[in-house]
Design brief:
This protein is mainly α. It contains 8 helices and 4 strands; from the N terminus they run E-E-H-H-H-H-H-H-H-H-E-E.
């Protein structure tokens, strides 16, 4: 990890994923471009929103996990997800303390769930993985020791509504689609 201007952390993980996709010949160029983008990104008063970079794919143990199909339109599960997000169900888990009650971050470095251009890059399995295991080199810790699989899926269901309301993950198309089109 490197520090850019304003002390922002540049994660090698993102650079490595990009380099693997581009091949070794272009690896140095990809890393240079990626680090330059990170270094030039404005810091803003509260750290600002990070540049939109696709997350790495979910590891094998999470890649085939998906939201239970009948949950996407389940109002009861959505409400349970809201209560989990706000810390009402489990006082040890309060996503809103960093990500904000409305998905707008209240702590520097937290992902803005309201940004559909960023959030559409996260498949349901990647989202579930990040909630479960956390994000390396950030303050986002894993929650699988405090939340059941079911509760973590409820969080995905609720958080999706900030930037991807009315969308469901379509595994065949590998993208978010309108719920009515699924």
């Amino acid at each position: 990890m490197f520090r850019g201007r304003c002390g922002r952390i540049i994660h090698k993980e993102r650079m490595i994923v990009m380099a693997k996709k581009l091949g070794l010949v272009r690896m140095a160029l990809a890393m240079t471009i990626g680090m330059t983008i990170e270094l030039l990104a404005g810091c803003g008063e509260q750290g600002g929103e990070k540049p939109i970079v696709p997350p790495p794919p979910a590891p094998a143990e999470y890649a085939d996990k998906h939201m239970p199909a009948d949950w996407w339109g389940d109002a009861k599960k959505l409400e349970e997800g809201r209560k989990l997000f706000l810390g009402e169900t489990n006082p040890d888990v309060n996503c809103a303390s960093c990500h904000g009650k409305d998905g707008k971050p209240v702590k520097a470095g937290a992902t803005d769930f309201r940004n559909p251009e960023r959030m559409k890059l996260y498949s349901d399995s990647v989202w579930f993985w990040r909630i479960s295991e956390g994000v390396p080199n950030t303050k986002m810790k894993g929650w699988k020791s405090k939340l059941s699989d079911e509760d973590r899926w409820k969080l995905v269901l609720y958080e999706r509504n900030f930037g991807l309301a009315g969308k469901v993950w379509n595994e065949e198309k590998k993208q978010w689609v309108d719920a009515s089109a699924k």
